[in-house]
Amino acid sequence: MKRYHPLNSEEEKVIRQKGTESPGSGKFNRHALPGIFVCRQCDAPLYLSKDKFASECGWPSFDDELPGVVERREDVDGERTEIVCRRCNGHLGHVFEGEALTKKNVRHCVNSISLDFVPALTEDGYERAIFSGGCFWGVEALLKGIPGVVRTRVGYIGGHVVKPSYQEVCTGSTGHAEALEIVFDPEKVSYEELAKVFFEIHDPTQRGGQGPDVGSQYRSAVFYLTEAQKEMAQKLIGILRKRDFNVVTEVVPATVFYPAEESHQDYYAKKGKQPYCHKRIARF
Which of 35, 204, 205, 244 could connect to 119 by a Cys-Cys bridge, CB 3.0–4.6 Å? Predict the structure, then answer.
């Protein structure tokens, strides 16, 4: 199953017809917020904001990409190297080497119009965290009450179909995981504290599901929004493995988080019930 975002005429010209936006005109040219840049057409995560730098060339510049997501091709002009999204073949821009602009000596020159941005921070200044550990009803019920958590939403992330429905995700064919988005105040609770609770409310050693819920949509995963979140998740997994837990939790870059239908939000509170497939077990 594949489904991409519809494109307007300007996006079509750049992404599918390999055009170029005017220098200095793109919304991400001087963008400097923390988060992840994704493909405008298919949502594939492409670049971390930490790898963006000011090249003053007129287009967003990156000196590294996320592993395996950007494909290099000889441009039709026979002189430059084109870069495209590996998932959907959408045109991104061109890559140049040997300019000595950064230590990595590489510049991905990308059209803003080929990108969307997944922020690590909310507009009101809080941090976002996204976890997947089985049925999202139970994950939300056990994490939302932690002091410092501002709000939560359940939804879908990590798939290859844009705007999936619950019914589609349940088939396992979209690649999405049922997940929880947490908005938290880092002055009151740290990402480390939240991640520790996450690893204690589900079984991070179970592959292909969680408890009675079987399927890739119920996989254990941390969707990181910054390098610091990635490193913390990996650190905690390392601690658990030293304690003989065979952790299989994926640590992968976040992409677009699609909120689930309203009937799934705050499910157990609405029903007046307690989770039956999640409980907290001390591991740290």
Answer: 35
